[in-house]
């Protein structure tokens, strides 16, 4: 395997920090096999880290920089570097267009991943690549694409588009699209998926400067998808579930006639508080958290560098401790600061890329190429190249976090609890897992609408262990929703349950579909004076206690209908001995 180890140059203050905290900085290893082609030109781009061919190994996707298609570069169209989970990549390209941003998701719900992109160079002579914004359907290989783009880029976008993201903005069960202008002046546009290959703008405007990035996220956890964008007209756009948006930048510093540079977004802590990062006007790093009570942004930049020469930021939990960490890159220098969710940051990894000046043109993290449980890192840096005559050229750096997985584990990334999800809408279940090298693995996802102890119903099984599953939220109406995610190998399994309850909006659930095996439950839950005991014929004995532990009901061979009219309002815990000798437990709420 061909790689370069990134040796860390630790300044004095970092050495002191390490002595005080006892932490060793993370080490990142550069991977190069299969990544030297195509060569890049200059200018910006964006990347997607996704398993486009569903083989369980993350791939790297782009539509290239200024050199795509074919300008001082071999780039063209949708560029895929297929990963093998071992640090090796293989390239494939299709199309004659480029210079922009890309998003990945299943837009027609056929189970195969598709792509959406905004580009400046819509130079194709066919329908594949002749628009500034397009969506194309994939066939599961990551190589072949079918145009699905009627109505996109039809609202005054006449210069170029760039950053692009998918999300179900109107909660109808299909992914929609947002795209931001290439620099000035094509604006910002949201298009709703009409489910038949046509799209309709629901929100948008022209003009204004752009730093060319956009990210979708549910900032305020109300179930309706929002987005943040590097655009002069505003940063944070809050959705109402219909495709309309209101900008709320209260608390953020003014951006003047420019846009927020290198915007990124993530949960900051296990309580799912949303944060954003960006490069501030002084070239330093700013992080702000969203206050969902005061409805404004609060500065938690703390001891991060307030000035510098950075061009890129990312916000991601790099050490898988539940807290987002801040990253920045600029002029060859990469730095990682570990966060605690409150604005205290500890300097961690720090290294430099090879060539000068090393201007950051793109940076992405969040994906785990080798399934060791820790996110990896992609950087595109502009350097001087050539001999006697020097010219600017971008170079790709892909770094793997160096920990070797020695045990099997899995962790939920989304949801983590306290979110509200809308039945029928599309969301992405996300996880991280550690699997020993060269060991095949799959993932099973189950859901409980009645608390962390189940009962559990199957969501999906035999999934590729790639960290993400596109999910249509079921109509389970519950404030006690939990997911159980299990990673399985031939030698064992490991499971995780959502740390806290999340909410599925709607009426309380009586009978969720797709049971994995017969369950005994008190329904409806919450309930009132009469409840139904499902599968009561399986029960040998039932005991119900209140929150004080006092038995309020006991019965051998309980009936299917229970009269609870004499019970006080509150929470009750039941235990049932089944006729097969097993024990079932649960919680029931009387209102």
Describe it.
This protein is mainly beta and 591 residues long. The strands form eleven sheets. Strands 31, 33, 34, 36, 37 and 38 form a six-stranded mixed beta sheet that branches. The protein has a five-stranded antiparallel beta sheet with strand order 1-2-29-28-27, with no helix packed on it. Strands 3-4-5-6 form a four-stranded antiparallel beta sheet, with no helix packed on it. The longest helix is centred in the N-terminal third of the chain and has 10 residues, at 12-21. The protein is globular and about 90 Å long. Residues 1-21 and 513-517 have low confidence and may be disordered.
**Computed Rg:** 25 Å
The proportion of residues forming helix, as a percent range, comes to under 10%
How does the overall form come out from the CA principal axes?
globular
Count every beta strand, where a strand is a DSSP E run of 2 or more residues. 45
On the 0 to 100 scale, the average pLDDT is: 92
Individual helix count: 1
Structural class: mainly beta
What oligomeric state do these chains adopt? single chain
Strand content: over 45%
Termini Cα gap: 62 Å
């Amino acid at each position: 395997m061909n790689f370069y180890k990134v040796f860390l140059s630790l300044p004095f203050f970092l050495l002191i920090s390490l002595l005080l905290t006892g932490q060793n900085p993370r080490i990142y290893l550069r991977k190069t096999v299969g990544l030297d082609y195509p060569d890049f030109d200059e200018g910006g781009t964006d990347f997607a880290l996704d398993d486009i061919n569903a083989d369980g190994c993350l791939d790297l996707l782009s539509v290239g920089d200024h050199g795509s298609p074919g300008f001082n570069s071999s780039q063209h169209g949708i560029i895929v570097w297929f990963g093998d989970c071992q640090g090796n990549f293989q390239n494939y390209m299709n199309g004659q267009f480029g210079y922009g941003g890309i998003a990945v998701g299943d837009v027609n719900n056929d189970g195969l991943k598709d792509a959406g992109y905004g580009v400046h160079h819509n130079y194709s002579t066919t329908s594949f690549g002749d628009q500034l914004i397009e969506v194309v359907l994939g066939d599961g290989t990551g190589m072949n694409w079918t145009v699905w783009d009627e109505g996109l880029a039809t609202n005054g976008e006449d210069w170029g588009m760039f950053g692009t993201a998918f999300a179900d903005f109107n909660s109808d069960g299909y992914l929609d699209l947002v795209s931001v202008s290439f620099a000035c002046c094509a604006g910002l546009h949201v298009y709703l998926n009409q489910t038949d290959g046509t799209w309709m703008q629901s929100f948008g405007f022209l003009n204004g400067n752009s730093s060319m990035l956009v990210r979708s996220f549910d900032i305020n956890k109300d179930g309706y998808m929002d987005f943040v964008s590097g655009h002069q007209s505003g940063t944070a756009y809050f959705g109402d579930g219909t495709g309309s948006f209101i900008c709320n930048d209260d608390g953020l510093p003014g951006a003047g006639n420019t846009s927020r540079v290198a915007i990124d977004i993530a949960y900051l802590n296990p309580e799912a508080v949303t944060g954003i990062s960006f490069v501030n006007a002084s070239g330093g790093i700013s992080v702000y958290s969203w206050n969902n009570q005061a409805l404004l942004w609060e500065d938690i930049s703390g001891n991060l560098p307030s000035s510098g020469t950075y061009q890129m930021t990312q916000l991601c939990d790099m050490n898988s401790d539940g807290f987002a960490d801040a990253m920045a890159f600029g002029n060859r220098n990469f730095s990682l600061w570990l966060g605690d969710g409150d604005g205290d940051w500890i300097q961690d990894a720090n290294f430099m890329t090879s060539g000068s000046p090393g201007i950051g043109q793109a940076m992405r993290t969040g994906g785990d190429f080798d399934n060791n449980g820790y996110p990896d890192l992609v950087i595109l840096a502009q350097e001087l190249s050539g001999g006697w005559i020097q010219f600017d050229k971008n170079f790709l750096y892909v770094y793997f976090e160096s920990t070797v997985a020695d045990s099997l584990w899995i962790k939920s990334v989304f949801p983590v609890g306290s979110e509200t999800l809308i039945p029928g809408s599309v969301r992405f279940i996300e996880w991280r897992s550690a699997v020993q090298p060269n060991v095949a693995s799959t993932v099973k996802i189950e859901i409980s609408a009645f608390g962390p102890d189940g009962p559990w119903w199957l969501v999906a099984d035999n999934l590729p262990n790639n960290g993400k599953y596109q999910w249509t939220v079921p109509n389970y109406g519950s404030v006690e929703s939990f997911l159980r995610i299990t990673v399985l190998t031939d030698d064992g399994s490991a499971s995780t349950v959502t740390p806290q309850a999340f909410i599925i909006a709607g009426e309380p659930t009586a009978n969720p579909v797709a049971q994995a095996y017969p369950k005994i439950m008190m329904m409806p839950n919450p309930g009132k004076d009469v409840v139904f005991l499902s599968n009561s014929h399986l029960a040998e004995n039932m005991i119900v206690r209140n929150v004080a532990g006092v038995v309020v009901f006991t019965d051998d061979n309980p009936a299917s209908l229970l009269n609870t009219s004499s019970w006080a309002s509150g929470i009750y815990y039941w235990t049932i001995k089944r006729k097969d000798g097993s024990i079932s437990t649960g919680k029931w709420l009387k209102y």
